[in-house]
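Hey L., structure's done. Input below.
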Amino acid sequence: MTAMTWSRHAAIATLLLPLLWQQQARAEDDAGQLVVINGTRSPELQPYRYMLSGLDAFDDNHELAPNASLVRFRLYKSSKAPADAFDSLTVRLLGDQTEIPLPLAEDHSFSLPRNRAAEDDNADVVLNQKKSYYSWMPDVRSAGVPAGTRRLGDIRLECRVLVSVAKNYIPFFVRALINTLTLTTDWCSFKDFKLSVHADRDITSATLIDGATRVELKVSKDGKSYSVPIGNKQYANDALIQFE
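Output:
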């Protein structure tokens, strides 16, 4: 392996590790603890101020998905969650002086309001279940996208939201290292970066279609996710991903 090839792979690995850590390791560290116990706060799903970074990233990069009105945050069950983990799940924005319900949609996603009082109260986004049962991802959906497909620009914007939240957990020297290896502060635009995306349903194949170009994407063995080349600038934001 040449030095240049090794550097590229090191950059990708360095980029992916903090994102995986942000989504999973914090939950693993607090496995077995309740997020809300007897009405008081325990380890939270996310601090509200960190989630606001995601809302800012959505606004700052809205040109990637101009027909998307908002970003939602979608919850997914972890492998350790019981089958009925979603049945009684509730989400709240909770602080010492703040309590705002965040209703869950049928797809287990919620929207997050901007609330200055909650920000000043250092509120958290909390669940009434063990947070180790769940992971979350941003969810951006442009109006007019055909049913059963995903738009590439929407996924690119999801990545910006995710990375913006994740950067709150990453030490400065690690962020600087990633910036150096990728030659950009916009990690999602790194040319070799591929984002693993949850499928809306079990799939056997995923195809990126951009005009006359068709690219078969890698699908996980369990058919629940697929890998999207969001950093490859030759594909337009309006390219669609179709599934079987």
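Residues 3-243 form one domain. The chain has one domain: 3-243.

-- N.
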